[in-house]
UniProtKB/TrEMBL annotation:
InterPro entries on file: F-box-like_dom_sf, F-box_dom, LRR_dom_sf
An individual GO BP term: regulation of circadian rhythm
Disordered: annotated span: 1-26
Organism: Indicator maculatus
Subcellular location: Cytoplasm; Nucleus
UniProt keywords, alphabetically: Biological rhythms, Cytoplasm, Leucine-rich repeat, Nucleus, Repeat, Ubl conjugation pathway
Protein name: FXL21 protein
CDD domains cross-referenced by the UniProt entry: F-box_FBXL21, FBXL3_LRR
Major site of localization recorded for this protein: cytoplasm
Pathway the protein takes part in: Protein modification; protein ubiquitination
SUPFAM superfamilies per UniProt: F-box domain, RNI-like
GO CC, alphabetical: mitochondrion; nucleus
Membrane spanning residue stretches: none
F-box domain span: 41-87
């Protein structure tokens, strides 16, 4: 009789264990659904549209397409216009990549149905010509598009530069002609040329606000002047120094232009030791400042020491300076003398000579400096503390590698850290070099 009475107990325990397990597994879905029935939350097809839409936004195109075949509800979400407003085409070349696994018919289907929904589009390619050509092929199909921002991103060179200029220009022209409302374009390291810029301006002059086109060797100063003359709403411009000229700065300073807010200039040595860089006149910089007094001028330097001669010989209104290679003490001394608008300075390398004098001059003359970064340099602890004292609480960012600081008889690193923290009004620690 005991066995007969115990048997139903065993039978009842199994469903209880199963129900408990079910609650544990579905607790997350229950919270997502705002307390809906646990049983219904087990059904993926019952997830609200906004939850499915959020999940889909993180999926590459191939996975989106596969997910859309799960059920009718998911297929409906797959075709919601909001899903396609912001999209990145990731075009890499590994065996399991997008290029290998995506059938061209799928891309054509998406473009046919959702091209007019695409607004914020980017293409990420690797170093292979195949991936760049795939991006051009897709661009060529965007006939019924209304793109607002377009980015062509190369994770490694040469990618787009290996594509024929005619093919690239033809693909880009399709977007320039059909969008009519482009406001932001990033086409660094591409064979963009002057005729393409003229097409861009002819169709999007009223809407273009940001143009980033560093390392575009087929663009001439005349092409940029065309943009400066006709795109009166231009707010941000990024280009290589070899395109920058007195004439261009004067064009950007004319009365018919609105204030330029951000000018980025990449100073890159294409032929190490052989490049002769021109000098921009102080009068041209002054004209730009009179017209756009709040403009941020950002300069990235990737030069060798002997190539800096043309820069900062007289006052330059640069606000942000980044040195990706070694820069001499003499060059840093010039910055302290001739860059009164400097807000941020990053020096990746200098050498083994302490920069105390140069830093103190920068602190004294650059009254707007709020951010400093030092990598492979040397500064005495006493000199660094004096620099911090002179800058005071306005230093909102201070990134100094521990190896940069040279302890002396008066200051250990621990004492320096405490005193710097006191002058900054917050806890400060030098950055540690990663050991992995």
């Amino acid at each position: 009789m005991k066995r007969a009475r115990q048997k139903p107990v065993v039978e009842n325990e199994a469903p209880q264990t199963s129900q408990k397990s079910k609650k544990q597994k579905t607790g997350l879905y229950g919270s997502v659904l705002g307390g809906s029935a646990l049983h219904s939350s087990l059904d993926w097809g019952s997830l609200p549209h906004h939850v499915i839409l959020h999940v889909f936004q993180f999926l590459p195109l191939v996975d989106r397409a596969r997910a859309s075949s799960v059920c009718r509800r998911w297929n409906e979400v797959f075709h919601i216009p909001d899903l396609w407003r912001r999209f990145e085409f990731e075009l890499n070349q590994p065996a399991t990549s997008y290029l290998k696994s995506t059938h061209p018919d799928l891309i054509q289907q998406i473009i046919k149905r959702h091209a007019d929904h695409l607004q914020y589009v980017s293409f990420k390619v690797d170093s292979s010509t195949e991936s760049a050509e795939a991006a051009c092929d897709i661009l060529s199909q965007l006939v019924n598009c209304s793109i607002k921002t377009l980015g062509l991103i190369s994770t490694a060179k040469p990618s787009f530069m290996n594509v024929s200029k005619a093919h690239f220009a033809s693909a880009l022209t399709v977007v320039f002609v059909n969008s009519k409302s482009l406001s932001s374009i990033k086409v660094d390291d591409t064979p963009l040329d002057d005729p393409s810029l003229k097409v861009l301006v002819a169709n999007n002059s009223d809407t273009l606000k940001l143009l980033k086109m560093s390392s575009c060797p087929h663009v001439s100063p005349a092409g940029i002047l065309c943009v400066a003359d006709q795109c009166h709403g231009l707010k941000e411009l990024a280009l290589n120094y070899y395109i920058l000229s007195d004439e261009l700065l004067l064009a950007l300073s004319s009365e018919k232009h609105v204030d330029l807010e951000h000018l980025r200039i990449d100073v890159v040595s294409e032929n190490p030791g052989q490049v002769q860089f021109h000098t921009i006149k102080k009068q041209s910089w002054d004209a730009l400042l009179r017209h756009s007094p709040k403009v941020s001028i950002v300069m990235y330097f990737f030069l060798y020491e002997e190539e800096f001669d043309a820069f900062f010989r007289e006052e330059t209104p640069v606000t942000h300076l980044y040195f990706g290679r070694a820069v001499s003490k003499a060059m840093l001394g010039r910055i302290g003398l001739h860059c009164p608008r400097l807000v941020e300075l990053v020096v990746c390398a200098n050498g083994l000579q302490p920069l105390d004098e140069e830093l103190l001059r920068i602190a004294q003359r650059c009254k707007h400096l709020t951010a400093m970064g030092l990598g492979e340099c040397e500064v005495t602890c006493r000199g660094f503390l004096e620099f911090v004292k002179m800058c005071g609480g306005r230093l909102t960012q201070l990134s100094i590698m521990e190896e940069v600081l040279i302890p002396d008889s008066d200051y250990t690193l621990d004492r320096l850290r405490l005193e710097v923290s006191q002058h900054l009004g917050r806890m400060w620690f030098p950055d540690m070099m990663p050991t992995w």
